[in-house]
Design brief:
With 433 residues, the protein is mainly β. It has 4 helices and 35 strands. It has an 11-stranded parallel beta sheet with strand order 1-2-5-8-12-16-19-22-25-28-31, with helices on one face. The chain has a 10-stranded parallel beta sheet with strand order 3-6-9-13-17-20-23-26-29-32, with no helix packed on it. Helix 3 packs across helix 4. The protein is globular, with a radius of gyration of 24 Å. The N terminus is likely disordered.
Length: 433
């Protein structure tokens, strides 16, 4: 009788590892949705797309990607169930127009991300007038979502980041979005959440009520707020309360000049456990108040900022930082939101490397000169980049800045020359696909 052979525990362990590896590597599918011409009985391919995103989510799993073609989708989406937490949702624009996802009900979040670990990209997210555009939460787990290239508007709160408690991790990367016209906050950060908020335009959020405005931080949260353009929110650009400890670095914060006496660019409310906040390399100008600590209670942590021309006071409860300056930042075109620094700006090389990001809002390496600049843009005086040339030609051709033209250095000489200009003009005119 032949001897019986029993697999060892090591064999079983290796088999399990192999199964996990096979499940997590390479075995993912791209699905497509077209709200105009799709059919939920179709195959979900590019040529035969589904009609609704909800149907696509029900079919997708693992690290699949759902590509959403331009249309308006009146749906509320949830990536909360366990098999759905690694599915990416990516919009396919029609020119400058992003696919629109409008909440099925004003009181329902447009997109719910629970313990989510994938990407939401290229979408217009709206309709949750009594809820959140994106509700990003961690509950007995980790949420490190990436939210990029979206427009979030017409919600009560644009993006909400929170956890169920101190043992959870909610650290989404929220970058390169337009977040505007939400009634409470553009972004709300609560309950131990630690998002990175980088390179966004955050404006016209809030309704003038206590605590509303651009970015709200509370309940032991610790956001990194870097390279953002934050303007014209009502009541504050950034508000901080309840032991929150954000890092506020290299932002431009302007236009928070409402009639309310507690309007400010950065506002610390009640000082509940807050005596110091890292506020460096920012340009804070033309607000009702620059840095405000409620009740004039002492707060510190500000340094290397340009705090200038705020109508009530530049500092209230804060003292001027040792390396703060106060002068016109000399933006290129502030009346038209052109917040790049002109060559004579006093903010050039006056920042600090401490906590400064490696790149600016345009992706340019910091520093460009003898030191780090204040504000979201790093100034440089060398020849224009290829991106600059594309932008200039788009403006001349009457095309919006967000219109996408994929292009590289045509002849790989590191310069913008005749070949690149001809290529760009051909792309703009439609002669080259």
């Amino acid at each position: 009788m032949a001897p019986q052979i029993f697999p060892s525990k090591t064999f079983f362990f290796l088999a399990v590892l192999l199964a996990v590896a096979m499940a997590s590597s390479g075995y993912c599918t791209d699905y497509y949705v077209d709200g105009n011409s799709g059919n939920d009985d179709a195959a979900g391919t590019s040529q035969n797309p589904w009609k609704t995103i909800s149907h696509a989510i029900s079919k997708a799993s693992g690290t699949d990607t759902i590509y959403v073609k331009y249309a308006t989708y009146n749906e509320s989406l949830s990536f909360a169930p366990m098999p759905k937490r690694n599915i990416s949702l990516v919009g396919i624009a029609d020119g400058d127009a992003k696919p629109i996802i409008c909440s099925a009900s004003p009181g329902t979040h447009t997109i719910t991300l629970t313990n989510y670990r994938a990407m939401i990209k290229g979408l217009e997210i709206t309709g949750a007038s009594n809820a959140n555009g994106i509700n990003c939460n961690a509950s007995s787990g980790t949420n490190d979502a990436e939210i990029m290239d979206c427009k979030l508007h017409g919600n009560s709160l644009g993006v909400h980041a929170t956890t169920a408690g101190s043992t959870d991790e909610c650290s989404p990367y929220i970058h390169n979005n337009f977040i505007c016209s939400n009634t409470t906050h553009g972004i709300g950060v609560m309950v131990y959440a630690c998002p990175t908020i980088d390179g966004n335009y955050i404006y016209d959020n809030g309704n003038g009520s206590e605590g509303s405005g651009g970015i709200g931080n509370c309940d032991n949260s610790c956001a990194s707020i870097i390279n953002n353009i934050i303007y014209d929110n009502d009541l504050a650009g950034i508000s901080i309360i309840d032991n929150a400890n954000p890092k506020i670095v290299n932002n431009i914060i302007t236009g928070h000049n409402r009639t309310a006496s507690n309007s400010a660019a950065i506002r610390v409310r009640h000082n509940e456990g807050i005596s110091s906040v890292m506020i460096v390399n920012n340009i804070i100008t033309k607000n009702e108040c620059g840095l405000r600590s409620q009740g004039a209670q002492s707060c510190s942590g500000n340094d290397y900022n340009d705090v200038w021309n705020n109508s009530f006071r530049d500092y209230f409860g804060f003292a001027k930082g040792a390396n703060d300056i106060s002068g016109d930042p000399l933006f290129v075109d502030p009346e038209n939101r052109g917040y790049r620094l002109s060559a004579s700006s006093p903010c050039i090389d006056k920042g600090t490397s401490n906590g400064a990001p490696d790149k600016d809002i345009d992706g340019r390496i910091r520093p460009q000169g003898g030191g780090y600049d204040m504000g979201a843009y790093e100034y440089r005086e060398d020849v224009a980049t290829l991106a600059d040339a594309i932008l200039a030609l788009k403006v001349l051709a009457g095309i919006g800045p967000s219109h996408s033209i994929e292009i590289t250095d045509i002849n790989n000489d590191g310069k913008i020359g005749l070949e690149e200009v001809i290529y760009i003009l051909q792309k703009i005119s439609g002669l080259r696909q």
